[in-house]
Amino acid sequence: MNSPFTRIHVVTRGNAWLLRDGNKHPLNTQHLYLTPSYTPHSYECDNEFYLYYIHIYETLEKKSSIFDQMNFPVEIEGDALLLDLVERLYLINPGRELSFYDPGAYDNSTELIKNIAMQGNTPLALELESRGIIQQLLSRFFAYATPKTPNVDERMSRVLEYIHTNIHTPIHIDKLAEISFLTKDHFIRLFKKQLNCTPGKYINQKKIEKAQLMMLIENYSIQELAFRLGFENVSYFNRLFKKLTGENPSQYKKRLNM
């Protein structure tokens, strides 16, 4: 699973496991688990399992995500306040629970689309309270977060901010080199050394992640989606999307609307 949602699980009863980053994490009662968006993961469960399941998606604002910047712990221990906050979040968002929990199919269910539509009609007071609760939950994880790229210097930080802010446009390596005050060849070498991938690969990954989110919350045609993300060639966008997600955009969009 490689979802555009960030997920917080709060376990209340039963046994299950989260498979992520090559590790198998037991899901313990009254603990909270955070899985950032676009993090490949899966689950194992061989019996009844009860939990609160919170999915969070970011807006389409042109800015860097905190999950691009920081590594968060997978698990934190809950306390009375956190568990009360989760209960409160559930109570002020009625009708959002899943009638059937299937981690392998949830992102593609009609319930997901219904919940997103309901979110747009939430009274402002409850919307603000919900956001406040989610921020408090995330703040507990943030207390143990570490920089995702601790060796990135100020030049590469400027480049990353430019990429995230301009992900909807064609991004040229010459421009990134100019921002970093380096020659093109030196910039590419330094970017690869500090980010462990080439600038082109990083840009393409972020564009396809943005495409997944855009398909989830807006009804764009594939051609319009490609153009809105700065692709001049729709065929190339289709090939890149399939390479990075395992299916072409039309298949992905169809699954979202099943």
From TrEMBL:
What the entry lists under InterPro entries is as follows: AraC-bd (IPR003313), Homeodomain-like_sf (IPR009057), HTH-like (IPR037923), HTH_AraC (IPR018060), HTH_AraC-typ_CS (IPR018062), Tscrpt_reg_AraC-type_HTH (IPR020449)
Keywords attached to this Swiss-Prot or TrEMBL record, sorted alphabetically, are: DNA-binding, Transcription, Transcription regulation
Residue ranges constituting the HTH araC/xylS-type domain according to the UniProt record: 157-255
- Which SUPFAM superfamilies does the UniProt record give? Homeodomain-like, Regulatory protein AraC
| Signal peptide, first to last residue | none
Q: Transcription as a keyword?
A: yes
Record Gene3D superfamilies? Homeodomain-like
Q: Fetch the PROSITE patterns from UniProt.
A: HTH_ARAC_FAMILY_1, HTH_ARAC_FAMILY_2
UniProt entry tagged with the keyword Transcription regulation: yes
Q: Return the protein name.
A: Helix-turn-helix transcriptional regulator
This protein's species is Sphingobacterium micropteri
The upper taxonomy is: Bacteria, Pseudomonadati, Bacteroidota, Sphingobacteriia, Sphingobacteriales
